[in-house]
Design a protein that fits this description.
heterotrimer; A mainly alpha; B mainly alpha; C mainly alpha; A: two-stranded antiparallel ribbon; 2 strands; globular; B: mainly alpha; Four Helix Bundle (Hemerythrin (Met), subunit A); flat
Amino acid sequence: MDSFIVISLIKVVLVFAVLMTTLAYLQWVERKVIAHIQVRPGPYRVGPHGLLQPLADVIKLITKEDLMPPYVNRPLYLAAPFLAITMALLSISVIPFGPTIEVAGYQTWMQLTDLNIGVLFVLAASSMGVYGIALAGWSSNNKYALLGGLRSSAQMISYELPLSLAIAAPLLISNTLSLRELVERQSGSILSWNVLHGPFPQIFSFIIFLIAGFAETNRVPFDLPEAENELVAGFHTEYSSMKFASFFMAEYANMITVSCMATLLFLGGWDAPWPAAYGSSLVPAVIFAFAGVVALYHGMHPARRRDRLTLPAFGIIFLIIAGIFLLPMVQSWLVPLFWFCAKTGTILFAFMWIRGTLPRFRYDQLMGFTWKFLFPVAMVNLLVTGLLVALVS
Amino acid sequence: MDTIIFLIFAIIAVVCAINVVVQTHPISSAISLVGVMGSLAILYLLLGAEFLAAAQVIVYAGAVMVLFVFVIMLLNAGAEAKKGRSFMAQLLGVPLLIGLLGLLAWFVQRLYPVGTTVHFGGFRGGTAQDVGRALFTSYLLPFEVTSILILIAIVGAIVLARKELD
Amino acid sequence: MAEVPISWFLTLSAVLFALGVAGFLFRRNIITVFMSIELMLNAVNLSFITFSYQLKQVNGHLLAFFVMVVAAAEAAVGLAIILTVFKNRSTLNIDEVDSMKN
């Protein structure tokens, strides 16, 4: 019993630390990706290639003046960002990052806890996250914030319907609500992942899930309620400093949750695209070695003077990481973790790619899209999946 | 351990329920009601009803109460005006209410003196699989009828809430 | 004592139901009255699930599920009615919705 509590505490601290760092650096990645889409360098000066920019942002946000306007409804004003970020972080606690890991004789899952209603738990946490935004809009005592909060919460609860229907379709094929078992039932190769397997490949569910996920997390093209040039700034108009930062951390944490759920439900979790017997465990080493060689090559003749030190340094770091992936004692858990992060990272990159590419929907177009198109399509998809599963089994 | 969890969440539920009844502004009552539903969801987990606990949070606390909060925000009616109530009535009323609740509790206790105790894992038949199997076999007719009921509710709500076409 | 006697759950359900009835009878705001109704329905759900635990059957869960569904449908229609009443009378006080009284 004691070792269970100690191991769980260690896992909680580890996941929290890694998640917070990832949230900060996800913002760096987003700014870099959008900048390169728009043919400009992005954050470049603070640290090598802007890598210390998140630190600068954190320092700025912490030291900013923390306003408490006198006309707000205090308990709700303080509770709203707290609710938003609590619910966003709560859904990470059931996500499995890999198979079992064995450290110093103790074997444990790479997951904080495995509930047998894991999928429903994530849905419940995202339903409760709507309150953070609605209460932020109401308590600010400001008509722009109220309208932004109402629009945003109406959008989130409307898109929960196609989201739930798109989740229900692969559950018909995998027959379990536990997230770990979902991945274990998709193990094998790329042909047994839910997006390509089964009597009805779940491609439509995947697309509907991603579209509804974009709307749930208030990302472009559905970010009208919180965009800076619409409605002043939407529901977070009256917030400053750390409370404002918590809304943004909540948004990025929701993005990570949606990407992880898409990976687990449709893309096979930590499963490699082809079995390890054919060499798929060498792929991470090859990728990092290639990145290291390219960085070293560009480090010989750098385009900008400040890159003369940083590019070779990164090259050497990538080569060391490639070497770590070849060690046999960490391969059993590091390679599945790599595949999970690669798939989740691809979907996160798609989030940022679309942000740099598409214009945003108007609010009535947004709501018309879900009620008149996405919800019927999701329902038809569920019916067809159910019919084919019933006919085949 | 189970007793501690039960006591904490039962006290939270009762305090939030008293808050629902006592607060003047409807939005504070609505948030307290969300608190009641959340603590009841944890008590359902203690009773082995895992699917119902998740459904309570997703449907009740996460959709129905959001609807309440929307309507309160749209109507923006403000806090209820406190009518002057005589102090004697309050002085007498609250102890009587506590007495009534205590009497109720004592009668319920008397009906179930000894017997089943509740602990985590005492009832394992509340999984989604069991609920689903019962829902689609023995309770199929109520299931279909409630779908028609929901359809009627949707049509009714839209008809009542739309703008009049001139 | 790591186990909770089942009568405590029923007591809690009775207390919540009584508080719901008190709110229903004594409050003047329509929305608060409606929320007291939801509180009563939640108390009844707790009772159903408690008895389902005692009899070791899943039927109580099913009945609680249907209560939840009906409560959701009723909330939707009831709030639409409240919106209409507010549009016509600009008040949320149920004492003032009395035009059918003599």
